[in-house]
Design goal:
The complex is a heterotrimer. In chain A, 73% of the residues lie in helices and 2% in strands. Chain A is mainly alpha-helical. Chain A has one domain (2-325): Orthogonal Bundle (ABC transporter involved in vitamin B12 uptake, BtuC), CATH 1.10.3470. Chain A starts with a helix and ends with a helix. In chain A, 48% of the residues are buried. Chain B is α/β, with parallel strands linked by helices. Chain B is built from 11 helices and 10 strands. In chain B, β1 and β2 form a beta hairpin. The radius of gyration of chain B is 17 Å and the shape is globular. Chain B starts with a helix and ends with a helix. Chain C is mainly alpha-helical. Chain C has a single domain (6-282), classed as ABC transporter involved in vitamin B12 uptake, BtuC. Chain C is 71% helix and 2% strand. In chain C, β1 (135-137) and β2 form a beta hairpin. The chains are: A mainly alpha, B alpha/beta, C mainly alpha. Chain A binds chain C through residues 51, 53, 98, 101-102, 104-106, 108-110, 112-114, 116-117, 120-121, 123-124, 234, 238, 241-242, 245, 286-290, 292-297, 299-301, 304, and chain C through 34, 38, 40, 88, 91-92, 95, 97-99, 101-103, 105-114, 116-117, 229, 232-233, 235-236, 266, 269-270, 273-274, 276-277, 280-281, 284.
Chain lengths: 326, 245, 292
């Protein structure tokens, strides 16, 4: 209970002050959307221990559906986000249902292949606008009355949603449900022998994770105003994995830190443009995937716990040393 | 029978010499300084409770544990830093508790799989089949369809074929019918008479007692008692209490 | 729906068979690497791309022709694979396979990123070697010679690989190693060397497919990632445990894909995944798979 309260307050404080530090609100909203996506992914892969490589399907479909609901059906933002959540949930149950019985690598490959089907659907479905995607998604009034055309107002709404969800996940993990998930991750046969319906737990976690991933897509579409094919592409799945790895898989804060880092990195690298090192001039903006790829490899080789994970480990060993010194 | 060349080399040094061996599985410190040695042609049994570190000792000698520290010498040559396949090539044969029979290969393919070590003389196939006739009968049966006893005999036969002269046998009588256990007993007796050096991990005292020349009782990764066969008889009660029997 | 001219039908089947050959070679390599190393080689598509770029650059920069490239490029890419395995991938061996998957994913990003940076995303043309140009007239249809060549040499390579795995001593070490690598090592076989060899073999096979692909598909940096996901699906459908099964599945799915383009083009890009979904519900271990 304490951890989640600290987390809640901490995030709110940081979130409330962030727009006033000179950072672009659009950039912050992108961070929020992707942080939510990363948190959703981490909820399943970090806590259950099964790698899903298909989460972009939920993110992309959430973005498309929220965008379409707003544009074509005139939904207000909170309803559009509910649509995105439900789309993610349903898709999660379908894909999860097919994949959940398998272990390890097979599970990962199945999520990837099924997500690819969703991607191709997005390419061909008429309402998605194919290559162009859904553009100029309007910002309707929240609940029909609160005007969100000002970035700051939109940001406040999104911040509230994201912090609420992150807090909700944290509470869930502290509750018996979360403890069972961790037990399954650490020793599945034992959990089965204790009488838990392991498949049901795993599928629920997957569906919840998918629902929130869809929600994150919806947030992205409504704040940035567009939804496109890259949102559903498997490289987006890879991106969210990197965020969690970099930040710290399995930790509550890690995905958020990782998401902010990756979004910052990508935008800084693109804006740096041409850089001069000695007599060489290197155009960094076209090299972003190469650098991201290297960071990926470096992280996996040397830095597996991620930033938050490493910090936690250092703190834990310091605590251990203090205790043993007594 | 081991060759004269092998006997000459073996005669000058212990076949296996272990000093202050520590071993870890990940973070877990399992062996806390094992020290023992085997003379050529000896049969030594490691007795102890489950979890005492007997299997880990065999695996450590074979190089199959996470981390080892200490001295391991096979026929005088340093083995503690070598990977498992090089230790096998020094003439060490390992027969694990799970037997390690390959399910996708037939009985004979399993037997023929390991390469013969160059300097040693592997037991020829017909000799193995003479020694273990039911392997001959079941030679084309896939590994999965062999009975427990047949798998055990196959596992031993496999390392005999490589020409190993130091045999590490882990719980070979476990879970087998008395008739099969008798046959294994006879097999080990024959091998002993042919001069093989054998390190045996055995739960079953009645199996090990008549076979072994010496007994090492292992507790928590260390040797707590060293007994000859005669001493084992004399101190049977003390041994039983230590083993928690 | 059924009054498709025979020529069109046979033409699509041929194209499908050609694609199937690529699926077969690539899924064979993937399955080998997964079987022994327990690694999902996300870099497999990039290695295929390296093969195509290899034959292209060999011609452009050093004037080496197609025939030499067919032998040399897979060897070079195979050596590169061996280096990657020995120096980097090996360090992840004992860990959750998540990490080796992510590592190879990062490697793919880097390789594709480098080539995209230098050559852009557009395709580069590679000419069909002069000896293989033209058509064979069979009366009821005309077959491009190059496609016949692809099918022929692919089948040869697949059968040779099958022979290596199922009928040679090294192959028996490999098959035993897939089951229990530690035991194989305890019997005196240098398993670490075998592991490096298998990764190199998989890389070489992928590059070989890339060389074959250069004249008929455009040589472009993203050609690997497009085909990779489908290859994963093929491996899942075929299951692990049968070399011949992997080859047959690859060929069959290529043909199915080709046929779908004739009868129902809208699903041709997803038909492989639909088949995969069905197979998974029916036989979770894959058509030829052995449940571990």
């Amino acid at each position: 209970m304490r951890t989640s309260l600290i987390l809640l307050i901490g995030l709110l404080v940081v979130g409330i002050f962030a727009p006033f530090t000179g950072l672009y609100t659009q950039f912050l909203m992108k961070c929020l959307a992707l942080a939510l996506f990363a948190v959703a992914f981490n909820f399943f892969t970090g806590n259950v221990g099964l790698l899903s490589i298909g989460h972009a399907a939920f993110f992309g479909m959430g973005a498309y559906m929220a965008g379409y609901a707003t544009k074509a059906w005139g939904f207000t933002p909170e309803l559009a986000l509910v649509v995105a959540l439900i789309v993610g949930l349903v898709l999660g149950l379908v894909i999860g249902g097919m994949a959940i019985r398998r272990q390890g690598i097979y599970f990962a490959m199945i999520t990837l292949a099924l997500a690819q089907m969703v991607y191709f659907f997005c390419v061909q479905a008429p309402f998605t606008g194919a290559e162009d995607g859904l553009q100029r998604i309007p910002r309707r009034a929240l609940f029909g009355i609160i005007d969100l055309s000002d970035d700051l107002a939109m940001y406040a709404f999104v911040l509230a949603v994201v912090v609420a969800v992150v807090w909700g996940f944290q509470r869930l993990m502290e509750a018996p449900f979360g403890q069972v998930l961790l037990a399954i991750r650490d020793n599945e046969p034992r959990a089965i022998s204790l009488g838990y319906d392991v498949q049901a737990f795993k599928l629920s976690a997957f569906a919840m994770s998918a629902a929130v991933a869809g929600l994150a897509g919806g947030v992205k579409a409504l704040t940035l105003g567009f939804a496109g094919l890259p949102d559903a592409h498997w490289t987006q799945s890879g991106s969210v994995i990197l965020m969690c790895l970099l930040g710290g898989l399995g930790t509550p804060l890690g995905p958020i830190v990782g998401a902010i880092l990756v979004v910052t990195l990508e935008s800084r690298l693109s804006s740096l443009g041409v850089v001069h090192i000695g007599s060489l001039s290197v155009d960094l903006s076209s090299k972003v995937p190469i650098i991201i790829g290297f960071i990926f490899m470096l992280c996996v080789m040397l830095f597996r716990k991620g930033i938050v994970g490493e910090i936690a480990a250092v703190l834990a060993s310091a605590k251990g040393r203090r205790l043993s010194a007594k | 029978m081991i060759s004269a060349a092998q006997a000459k080399v073996a005669g000058t040094a212990d076949v296996l010499s272990v000093e202050d061996l520590h071993a870890w599985y990940g973070e877990s410190h399992v062996l806390h300084g094992m020290t023992f040695s085997l003379q050529p042609g000896e049969v030594v049994a490691l007795l102890g409770r489950n979890g005492s570190g007997r299997t880990t000792t065999l695996r450590a000698v074979m190089g199959l544990v996470g981390r080892r520290q200490g001295v391991i010498r096979v026929a005088g040559k340093d083995a503690v830093r070598l990977p498992p396949h090089l230790i096998a090539r020094m003439g060490v044969g390992y027969c694990p508790e799970e037997r390690g029979i390959f399910a996708s290969l037939s009985c004979e393919e399993n037997l023929m799989l390991p390469p013969q070590q160059k300097s040693a003389c592997g037991m020829p196939l017909d000799e193995i089949y003479t020694l273990l006739p039911n392997l001959a009968e079941r030679r084309h049966t896939p590994g999965t369809r062999l009975s427990g006893g047949e798998q055990q005999m196959l596992a031993i036969a496999r390392i005999l074929r490589t020409g190993a002269h130091l045999l590490l046998l882990d719980e070979i009588s476990e879970g087998l019918a008395p008739v099969i256990v008798d046959r294994l007993f006879d097999l080990v007796t024959v091998l002993k008479s042919r001069g093989y050096t054998i390190l045996l991990v055995e739960q079953n005292k009645y199996f090990a007692a008549p076979l072994a020349d010496r007994f090492l009782v292992v507790e928590r990764g260390q040797i707590v008692m060293r007994l000859t066969a005669a001493e084992l008889e004399a101190q049977a009660d003390l041994v039983d209490r230590t083993l928690g029997v | 729906m059924f009054d498709i001219p025979l020529q069109v039908l046979l033409g699509q089947i041929t194209i499908g068979l050609v694609n199937g050959c690529f699926y077969a070679i690539l899924s064979l390599g993937l399955a080998l690497i997964f079987g022994l190393l327990n690694v999902i080689n996300f870099a497999h598509g990039a290695l295929y791309m390296l093969g195509a770029f290899g034959v292209y650059l060999a011609m452009q920069k050093i004037g080496v022709n197609y025939w030499w490239s067919l032998i040399l490029v897979p060897i070079v890419v195979g050596a590169f694979g061996a280096l990657i395995e020995r120096l980097l991938l090996r360090r992840l061996a004992g860990l959750d396979h998540l990490y080796s998957l992510l590592f190879t994913f990062g490697l793919a990003l880097v390789l594709e990123g480098i080539f995209r940076d230098i050559y852009g995303s557009a395709g580069l043309p590679y000419p069909t070697p002069p000896q293989l140009r033209g058509l064979i007239d069979l009366g009821f249809m005309r077959l491009p010679i190059y496609r016949v060549w692809i099918v022929g040499v692919s089948l040869f390579v697949c059968i040779a690989t099958w022979f290596l795995i199922e009928r040679t001593r090294l192959g028996s070490y490999l098959r035993a190693g897939t089951e229990n690598a530690r035991m194989v090592q305890a019997l005196g076989i240098n398993v670490p060397l075998m592991v490096t060899f298998v990764y190199a073999l998989g890389a070489g096979l992928a590059a070989f497919a890339g060389v074959l692909a250069a004249p008929i598909y455009q040589v472009q940096p993203l050609m690997g990632s497009n085909i990779l996901i489908v290859t994963f699906a093929v491996v899942v459908i075929g299951g692990l445990g049968s070399t011949a099964g992997a080859i047959a599945t690859g060929l069959a799915l290529g043909v199915i894909e080709g046929l779908s383009k004739v009868f129902y083009p809208e699903i041709s890009s997803t038909i492989v995944f639909i088949v995969m979904a069905f197979v998974l519900l029916m036989r979770p271990a894959g058509l030829f798979g052995r449940e571990a």
